[in-house]
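Query structure, 477 tokens:
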């Protein structure tokens, strides 16, 4: 379904995110017929260049990141939507020109793909030059602050010129198809929800493992670390979608209210319930300390923790979270281990094992439910656990299996005015309020993160988190 006619301004249009994700995503939506040909996409950045040079730059990025041919007629048509205005975020240059490019009657959206230190300047100038009005939307990228205090300051700064209904805080994990699917699996099937609580679920494991290191972006990452880069936002969102109560409706505030309740119910994490790690160099690849260009750095590239949610539904069911760079495989999944049946009528040696539901976010997005069946043959009642496994792409066939990139979905939601998959200001603040004490305790201690080998499953210490509870991490593969 096409969205309404819009003017979208992308601040930071010459940057990496814009090249890799935003423009390729917009192009794919254009090809899908979702973007009206009258719409305008205006790049804005400090570099001085004209529309033609900018279109060339973006054409190069789209060719590189989508694989489309340079001569593709769709690309030629898409480029016609593009314009460029050189802008000084902290000064006056370019703002009048930008204003003259905006059309009356079209939806106006402004994407801040820039450092958070510029958010305030952009918001203020959009307002003072009367470029934005009450109907305009602004989109802001992570990191949204680096602690509670800075997140509050950012929220307050944006609130001077924009209402909460106008602010779209991106967490690209919420744009991933399978992440949205978590809500559908839970709330559109009768099968799972009655069992979705501490009475029937033994524990939950959430893993986001990456094979890449931080080389090339060490300067940013070293000030951030896995806790700020992944846990406070992406992992927290996954946790919320798994743990939240059913919202009364699929409506932005109804969903976000329920997520917020989960974050507020998180218990503070005990130092003993958290392990942080840093990858080391081996013959083939550099270690974290080289990538971060600080031989003394104590920033974590891996974190594993046991999280408890203090409410009726989850009393006694731990959630184990882990994420890290340079691990054995790139895999993101949520594994829900149910309890064993209370009584077995079968021979104990081959008796039932706990059911497990694994939701794979990437790669091979899909679900795997492990169930017990009888092993075929005359040898008596022997039980065996087998997978009910499906990948969404296969199950839905070539038409339905097209998985749009997270950014495609999210940018279209901005134009539609749907905030469901964006973080509300209070959610972000609550997440920082929970992570701040953990990070502060690390800063205060002089302890170094546990070393781990590149290509491994993380530091040995992280095994202990589950072993002492008589549980095991799932293999990363
Ligand atoms: C980003 C982090 O937000 O998410 C990166 O800054 C991380 O460090 C990335 O690599 C992971 O996203 P995805 O979509 O590749 O799982």
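Result returned for the query:
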């Amino acid at each position: 379904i096409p969205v309404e006619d819009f003017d979208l301004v992308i601040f930071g249009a010459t940057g990496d995110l814009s090249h890799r994700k935003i423009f390729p995503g917009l192009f794919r939506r254009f090809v899908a017929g979702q973007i009206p040909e009258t719409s305008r996409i205006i790049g804005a950045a400090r570099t001085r260049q004209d529309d033609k040079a900018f279109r060339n730059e973006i054409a190069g990025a789209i060719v590189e990141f989508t694989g489309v041919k340079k001569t593709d007629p769709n690309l030629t048509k898409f480029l016609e939507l593009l314009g460029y205005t050189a802008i000084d975020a902290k000064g006056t240059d370019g703002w009048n020109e930008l204003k003259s490019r905006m059309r009356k009657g079209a939806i106006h959206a402004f994407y801040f793909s820039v450092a958070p230190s510029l958010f305030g300047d952009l918001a203020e100038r959009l307002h003072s030059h009367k470029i934005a009005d009450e109907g305009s939307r602004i989109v802001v990228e992570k990191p949204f602050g680096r602690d509670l205090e800075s997140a509050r300051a950012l929220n307050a700064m944006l609130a001077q010129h924009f209402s909460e209904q106008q602010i779209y805080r991106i967490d690209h994990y919420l744009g991933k198809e399978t992440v949205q699917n978590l809500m559908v699996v839970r709330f559109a099937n009768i099968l799972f929800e009655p069992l979705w609580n501490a009475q029937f679920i033994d524990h939950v494991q959430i893993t986001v493992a990456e094979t890449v290191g931080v080389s090339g972006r060490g300067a940013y990452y070293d000030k951030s670390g896995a806790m700020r880069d992944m846990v406070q936002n992406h992992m927290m969102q996954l946790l919320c979608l798994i743990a939240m109560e059913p919202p009364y409706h699929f409506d932005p505030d109804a969903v976000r209210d329920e997520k917020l309740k989960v974050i507020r119910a998180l218990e503070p994490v005990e130092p003993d319930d958290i392990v942080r790690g840093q990858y080391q160099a081996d013959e083939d690849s550099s270690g974290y300390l080289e990538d971060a260009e600080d031989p003394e750095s104590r920033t974590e590239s891996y974190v594993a923790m046991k999280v408890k949610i203090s409410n009726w539904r989850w009393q006694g069911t731990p959630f184990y979270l882990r994420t890290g760079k340079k691990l054995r495989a790139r895999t993101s999944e949520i594994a829900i281990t149910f309890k064993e049946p209370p009584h077995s009528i079968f021979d104990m040696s081959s008796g039932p094992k706990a059911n497990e539901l694994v939701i794979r976010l990437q790669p091979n997005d899909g679900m795997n439910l492990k169930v017990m069946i009888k092993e075929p043959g005359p040898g008596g009642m022997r039980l065996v656990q087998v997978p009910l496994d499906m990948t969404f792409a296969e199950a839905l066939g070539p038409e339905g299996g097209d998985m749009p990139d997270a950014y495609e979905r999210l940018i279209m939601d901005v134009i539609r005015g749907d905030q469901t998959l964006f973080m509300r200001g209070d959610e972000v603040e609550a997440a920082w309020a929970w992570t701040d004490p953990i990070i502060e305790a690390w800063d205060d201690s002089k302890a170094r993160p546990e070393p781990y080998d590149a290509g491994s499953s993380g530091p040995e210490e992280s095994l202990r988190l589950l072993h002492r509870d008589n549980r095991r991490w799932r293999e990363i593969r």
